[in-house]
Structure prediction request, 560 residues.
Amino acid sequence: MDFKKHIAERIEAGGLSQDEIYTMLALPPNTEMGDFALPCFRLAKTMRKAPALIAQEIADAYPTDEIVSEVSAVNGYVNFRIDRVFWAKQTLSRIFAEREKYGSSDEGKGKTVCIDYSSVNIAKPFHIGHLSTTVLGSSLYKLHKFLGYTPVGINHLGDYGTQFGKLISAYKRWGRKEDIERGGLRALNALYVRFHEEAEKDPALNDEARSFFKKIEDKDEESVALFEWFKELTLKDVSKIYDLLDVHFDSWAGESFYNDKMQPVVDELREKGLLKESEGAQIVDLEAYGMPPCIILRSDGASLYATRDIAAAIYRKQTYDFYKCLYVVAYQQNLHFKQFFKVLELMGKEWAKDLVHVAYGMVSLEDGSMSTRKGKVVYLEDVIEKCVEKALGIITEKNPSLENKEAIAKTVGVGAVIFGALYNNKIKDITFSYDKVLNFDGETSCYVQYTCARANSVLEKGGHAGGFAVGNICVQEFELIKVLADFPGVLHDALEKYEPCFIARYAVDLAQVYNKFYFDCSILNAEKEVRGFRLALTEATLIVLKNALGLLGIGVPEKM
Prediction:
């Protein structure tokens, strides 16, 4: 149950509403003081009394019950202690009743949330730079679904632009079908790199590329067929990685999908007097809002990202009638999103306030950055394979007789890649380190997975919890109960702030608290009643850790 709500409903102070009191209730710095605390300093002005006196009056008037066992006033705070046995029974009963649904809710019932993530470019490599948008978007998708929303996962494919003309030019000059079929995206990228190398010597190649792209726009049969082939090869390659990462989409509508939807946008902007000419280009002036102009059409009449994104937003609202539309895109695009969100607002789209740019930092390896044009690319597939290979080595060393080592190493290695991208606040830049993400003793998915394997082993030996009795609760047991009870609140906060890192950190915290309990408290050799309770705590921990990792897209091996 929501203990804060239970407490807030029974307090009357300074004319504050229950919601205001609920918000004021905080966690004391240590549990010896209590489980929840109400600071009374804010009430001093309205109640015209000293905070210490207010706290004492509230404590004296509060009706204790089977839930709140003790209330005390200390230095202007009212401290509330929840009955330990009640808290344990409530928490464990809910976990065992809901199991894989524990932490879920129906708060999003009837609300559709569009989530635009991954958005790979056709014929370009799926590299380490795509990791954050892919796993962050996927986790937000899973989280929204878990909390009752209807998520729509959108892979806004980069399938429009002169680069496709470059690729056709390169293929017709130097490519062979059998080489591309065999080499897939890597072979296509090699052609792309070669084009840029040759174009530096012969700039006329860029004109040829623009000509081929124009042919795609004009529906030239050969050019369109080549473009569709490149697209097919790309989706075949990236689908393997999406499967590995447990990432799924409901829509693959890319930039080209909006080709016939951009002219109505231009027409509406013109009708509403928002479009202005500037050096031959058509723009929306945003100077009054502290931003450079949003270019809608270039001087040659070509559309830009903003044009297509405005058209896409309107299409998504018409098609899905979204409650929110999230764009999981790197922070370098902050200005772009501010601009086209503002344009939609100026167009009178009141739902523009429901568009959210979920910005994230960059991912790089310890040896530096990348450039697709120059061929300096770190393929995400290679990073995953290396992690799986390293995981297999560590597992073999730790447990040489373990069965199915390859399958377990795959779960551990893939999990390490995902967790490495999600553990820190999304806005931070990440330097990916194989050693760090595969540290079985650090703040990693490996550590959490190993804790799950430990809990599984305990349950195999001791049996799964049936009915359980709650007697005296020791400190380690109570700390574990409190963390288990926190899970639904953590999920709510993670969704509110679009921060899956809250879930990742929670999983590490829970694993650490369980391991302390495991080492400090005898489980299998305890007396019968205590043994049953501790087995119940072990099983509850396993359920919650699986739920947490599942929302990040990470699997849990039974043994490690």
In short: The longest helix spans residues 177-201. The chain has a mean pLDDT of 92.
